[in-house]
Amino acid sequence: MGDREKEPLAPDKERHDDKEAIGSRSARILQLARATMSAYEESGPVSARQLHVAAASTPLVAFWLTVLLVVGLLSLGVLDSVVNSGVRWLGRDSFVVAALLAAALAFNAALVRREWRLAKTELQNRLKSVLDGLELASRGLGDTLGLGKFQADNHLPTNIASVTVARVLIDGSICYAPFNLLLEGDIVQLAFGDKAPAKAHYCNSDGVLNTRIPAILEKGQLLKPATFNIDASALQSESRSTRGQFYFKLLETPLVDTVHSILHSKRPDSVIYHQLYIITATLTTRVIWFILGASFIINVFRYAFNSSSKEKRAEEAISLLFNLPLYAVLPLLPLSLPFITLVARSFGNAQIICLHEALQASKEDFKDEENIDEFDAAPPPTKEVQTDYKAIWTAFVSQIMNRPSTPHHSQNHNAAGTPSHFNSGLLSRTTNLVESLASATVICAIDREGTVSMPFPTIDSLFFLQDGGAEDCTPALAPAAVNNTAMAINANILGEMNETPNGSLVASNVVGAGVTVGNGVPGAVVNGLVAGNQSTPTSTAAVAVTGFGNIAAAAAAEPVVLDLKEEGSATFGLRFEDKDWRDYMGSLKPLGLSLLLSTSCASPVSANGGAGIVSDGIGGDTVASAKQRRLKRVRTENHRKPNVFCIDGRVKPARQTCLCRVGREIGFQDSVVESFSSITAVHWYSPKIESLLTSGGSNGRSSDYHFEVPSSNSQIFLDTLTGDCQVFSDGNVELIVESCVDYWNGSDLELMTDAVEKKIFEFYQNAVYNDMQVIAYSYRPIPSSNTAQTLTTKTAAYVERNASFDLPKNNEEDEQLRSEMAGSVRWKNKSSRIASIIDSPLYADSLEPDAYLREVLRCQTFLGMAALCYEPKQDISNVIEDLKLAGIRFVYFSEAPERESKAYAERLGLEIDWNSCIILSSSDGSPGYLELHDMKAQLPRGVENIRGHIERVDDVPLRVSLFAESSPYSVLEMIKIFQENGEVVCCIGSSLNETNVESFATADISVAIDPFVALKTKRGENDPLAPLVLGAGVTTSPCALRFYFDTSVYSLTQLIREARTLVVNAQQGFSFHFGCQMSLSGIMLVSYIFLLPPILTGYQLLWLMWVIFPLQSIGFLFTPHDSAIMTMMPVKNNDHLKDRWRSARYYATRFAMPTIGSVAVFILSLWHFMGDQSDWKTVFGSFGTVSWMRLSDAELSALLYAQHILLVYFVLAIVTASSTFLSRTRTVWELPPWKNRSWMIVSVITIVLQLTFSAISLYTGPTSAVTLNALPWHIIFVICFGIVINIPIQEVVKRYDKQNWVKSQKLAQLQFNTKLGMHSPL
After folding, report:
1. N or C, which end of the chain has less CB nearby within 10 Å?
2. How does residue 606 score in pLDDT terms, banded at 50, 70 and 90?
3. Which residue has the higher pLDDT, 1195 or 446?
4. Are 1130 and 883 in contact (CB under 8 A)?
5. What span, in angstroms and rounded, lies between the C-alpha atoms of 1045 and 1034?
6. What's the start-to-end Cα distance of the chain, in Å?
7. Which residues lie below 8 Å from residue 834, measured CB to CB, with a gap of 6+?
8. What is the DSSP letter of 989?
9. Pick from 125, 260, 143, 244: nearest CA to 194
10. What whole-number distance in Å separates Cα of residue 558 and Cα of residue 919?
């Protein structure tokens, strides 16, 4: 896969030898996949995934400093117990603190190791759960995993790029199977245009390798005529012998490569990981050593020059020179950070998981916030959903304990044991779920069909030819039209139009339209259509000889294009955008009837009494009565016809789009088809196309995109009202036009001239350049002599259309007929299109059925064309704009060439001007840039040149939203390039596209989208979609999230908003926590400077570090959404915390008041509680009668009371300061903290806990006369003043930070919105 180095696959050696011993198909697949996983577990790199945030939270420096402090404390305690030094209060404190620190070290070590192990094995566990699901499914679906039920007669999208399924021979039948459920040795059936699911060798249908034509396909290679490397005649002979279906034997198991790709892909570490690592590294490598050194120097001075006793005791040396300096840096050691990060991440993941499920289950619409001006930049709309607190708690505990959570809506097992969505914790550790969503800077759409657009093309416009000489759009009445009846469609049929709400008919206002007028009076006979009370001509063959208008009128034919638009509020889900479209009813009615007859939604009655398009044994519809069809609901959504079988080539997806809604919008009722009896179907194709035979192999991405073997389908119907037979054809434009000798202009038949053909192909080429797919429609009447008797016993027929159709030359009469017909019908040497022999009743009955069908395809009448295109899903354009506002670039990877890619990108709402598209294929694959400004801009060509361009020229490739001629390898490389340059990539793609696996596994976070809605429903044992569900489970193994097809893309933006809120809240909480740690360390250092007695003991430090700080910090996680959160620019994953020293000064200033105030409160309190014995010398440097380590009960009681007064003040100060941390930019007046219910509850709990802790400590402390009954007013004043003045100081400093933040945001927006490069046009 790509240029990565693949390790040898363990199961490769013995595949062929042990194939029979392995057992059933499912067991063999599972054995090969599990063997690959076992090989990875044995030889997988230890550094497959870094230790996540927990590993960065406890550097080695912090570990060894804690160990030293534990040793010092134990030494002091042991010395007190053995020597009986008289400092028992200090000895007890030392033992307690040492035990707690040792427990914390053990807990952190276990937690770090656990998190590292879980992060390393999480993806493997997901794969194991998927394989276990396959094994479970095999019990209900059988050893073939239900593939035998997934056959070609399903209305399923099997010929679109985002669904990788192959036709495989199982138990003698051709079935569809996802790529990742195929097995080495399987026989797959490929037609021209199909991609190989794995490395495969050309073989016979029995699996014997074809040594005569040793064609080998690599994985993902397109099957083309050039693949066989033989001449055209030999290839045509080979194609005829196989009916265009070539058998290939797989030489490898795709699932093995899929598992290998998933396990060996690596994701970068998250932004939060890098930020926490830099902070902890800065604290442990610089700040800690500075404070430790300063504390040591101060205490050396105290030990040498300021001791109350001239005797230098050992315990005093240990305490002053060893323990106290370590106490100063103890608050900076991130001992509580691993647990805090685990709680914060687990809570965030639980919120995302529950919100994801709630959004998919909710039926509410997304709505904009209130009081937003429509002209202002506004955040994306959101959906009001209620997340169950019990579900969040369950998900939170599951994340903490690493238990697979079971979402309420997605983890449903059916009777076959097939889970609709595989789930194993959503890969929260591997993908850094909440962090990656919050930090996403690029969303890469690597699929189109079913992900960002509808799975099948939708109707865009109708094309037909109109008489250019008419002054108005209404077709004129022509007397000659009564006898010119080539369009011999019964007018009663065309008159059955849908009624409008007022009871009139939608076509009743068309003059002479050949329909029943609103009052029920039959209309006149016009437009070549015979009214219900008129008799049809006895010989339609005369039309072919005398039924043409003049050539001048044909030359004056003007093309008419009517645009259609999908609209949910319309009766049939679409509408004509042209208000005067009814003026063209004469041309629209034949087209509408053709569209209805070519679908199974309003099926005509077949000759054997059933309904439905005649079954060809491969793609036909089931038999049901026409009445039952009409009783079904009216289809208003874009839907599909039955699968069109590929004859000699893969057909365009537009051929499977059902256009019955267009016929109904024109005005037809379903009952119009009841008078038509389907006789047979003819599939005809033309493999002898020079461009197909000379096209390249695997290099041309452009030619691959447009590759198609021209084919068409014709349906022969018997009109039971008139007894005539008629042919309706649809398919490839070249084939249809080649078979037509005239066209219908809405009122008459005109000759198909070169000028008319030019106009047809101009529209066709323009449509193709605009990334549309075009279907042409034609019609012809055929004599009814012996047609029914000849064809009713036939099923489908297959006709190969060569460069010319030769009329039989059996006798002189045939030659005479040829001369007569050639004289009357246009003859073109380049195409040899002449009238068919069946137009003469003298010769039609003498033809064999096969020859008769070949003749039926000649001399048709061109009706028009339908242009279809992939329409983006609802709101996708608005989502892209909203993402841009949020600083997230939407990038689309297109398989199409540049021109077609830009056409679709314009529909998406992407920019398509200069510097907007980069071609990822190599220069030898297709032409270069088409736009002159792109050439001048010197955009790189080929993914292999992107890195060099970024390094030497400019970074325009990182700012482009469109990449053309993309392949799975080039998409993967671009994702890596984005990540190398600091982008956080969110990848969205089809859950059924096996080629997406490696991109899913490499992106920071991946979101799989089901390409059609059928996957949402529960699967049963007999459901043919069960294999697709299993295949999707494998493909989505590396994905953190999976969306249903009908889930709005706005769900992703709401998840990003939630993730951003959680991450911003967590960042504020961590900032507050680090600030409190620095403040506490500062208090210790200042107390040493002033030569104060122990301002805080060890257990009091641990109380603040492990209870108060984490509790108040975790409270930030519940802060509500900021309305501007989706207008902020995200931070890239490089150059982290470049202004870290400015941030250090910023936090030092914000916490200066709590630090200074705490020392002042302690000094005043100690002075007060010492009573008459207190003076400045006693407090500063000489506390204690003998030494501050040997205190009397009174002295110890005074110190303890002063410490707890300090603790209460400090807790009140940091709680007050925390109110200003609720928002980085908004003031407490803009965001009142008392309106934040969660913060209020946490703050009250923090204060109550601190008061309880102090009360218990004082109650169990030494007894003395010291009480709190009469604190002097100056101490109360200092406490109150320090708390009150803290808020204005915080806000002033925060205002300075806001200025810097706004400046950085504006700079980021400027860089995000510019596309200027070194050679960009002015």
Report:
1. C
2. very low
3. 446
4. no
5. 18
6. 41
7. 807, 818, 821, 822, 825, 827, 858, 859
8. E
9. 244
10. 37
Render pLDDT for 704-715 as a digit per residue (tens, 0 to 9). Answer: 788 888 888 888
Distance CA 421, CA 221 (A): 30
DSSP string, 84-134: --S-HHHHHHHHHHHHHHHHHHHHHHHHHHHHHHHHHHHHHHHHHHHHHHH
Per DSSP, the three-state class of 1286 is helix
The reported pLDDT for the residue numbered 434 is 92
* Token representation of residue 812: 């002189």
Q: Is 1291 exposed, middle or buried (0-12, 13-18, 19+ CB in 10 A)?
A: middle
Coil vs helix vs strand at 1069: helix
Torsion, Cα of 935, 936, 941, 943 (10° steps): -140
Element (H, E) at 19: helix 19-22
Q: Specify burial of residue 1180 (Cβ count, 10 A radius: 0-12, 13-18, 19+).
A: middle
Q: What is the mean pLDDT of residues 1229-1236?
A: 87
Pairing assessment for the beta strands 574-576 and 889-893 based on DSSP bridges: unpaired
| Amino acid at residue number 509 | N
* Contact present, 1001 and 261 (Cβ < 8 Å): yes
Assigned token pair, 920: 């990822």
Helix ranges, 440-510 (H): 491-494
pLDDT band at 414 (very low <50, low <70, confident <90, very high): very low
Q: Which of 560, 446, 856 is nearest to 681 (CA)?
A: 856
Percent helix, strand, coil in the chain (nearest 5)? 50, 10, 40
Q: Using DSSP bridges, classify how beta strands 558-566 and 458-466 pair: parallel, antiparallel or unpaired.
A: antiparallel
pTM recorded for the entire structure: 0.85
DSSP 8-state assignment for residue 599: S
Least confident of 250-259, 851-860, 974-983, 1100-1109: 851-860
E strands, 650-724, where?
676-685, 711-719
What pLDDT is stored for residue 517 in this prediction? 27
Q: Tell me the C-alpha distance between 737 and 830, whole Å.
A: 13
Looking at the DSSP assignment, which residues form a beta bridge with residue 195? 222
Looking at residue 367, the DSSP 8-state letter turns out to be B
CB 443 within 8 A of CB 1009: no
Whether the Cβ atoms of residue 355 and residue 1066 lie closer than 8 Å to each other: no
DSSP conformation class of 1171 = G
Helical (H) or strand (E) element with 1008: strand 1005-1009
pLDDT over 70 (residue 1174): no
What is the identity of the amino acid at 793? T
Question: For residues 1210 and 1096, what is the distance between their CA atoms, to the nearest angstrom?
Answer: 12
Pairing mode of beta strands 165-170, 187-190: antiparallel
Strands 749-751 and 442-445: unpaired
DSSP bridge pairs for 485: none
The whole-angstrom separation of Cα 484 and Cα 493 is 19
Q: What is the pLDDT of residue 930?
A: 67
pLDDT by residue (tens digit) across 1244-1261? 999 999 999 999 988 876
* Dmax (CA) of the chain: 143
From residue 1196, give the alpha-carbon distance in Å to each of 55, 841, 1189, 1258: 41, 125, 10, 11
Residue recorded with tokens 């380590």: 1189
Q: Does position 613 have pLDDT exceeding 60, yes or no?
A: no
Strand 1005-1009 and strand 1041-1043: the pairing is parallel
Q: CA-to-CA distance for 730 and 658, rounded, in angstroms?
A: 12
Structure tokens at 992: 């059924």
Q: Which of 502, 526, 497, 504 is nearest to 513 (CA)?
A: 526
Give CA separation, 693 vs 224, 697, 709, in Å.
8, 11, 10
Element (H, E) at 1209: helix 1193-1218
Place of tokens 């685990």: 342
Asked if residue 751 lies in contact with residue 826, where contact means CB atoms within 8 angstroms, the answer is yes
Q: What confidence tier does 383 reach under pLDDT thresholds 50, 70, 90?
A: confident
- Is the Cβ–Cβ distance between 716 and 727 less than 8 Å? yes
CA-CA distance, 98 to 92, in Å (whole number)?
A: 10
Reduce the DSSP state of residue 200 to 3 states and report it. strand
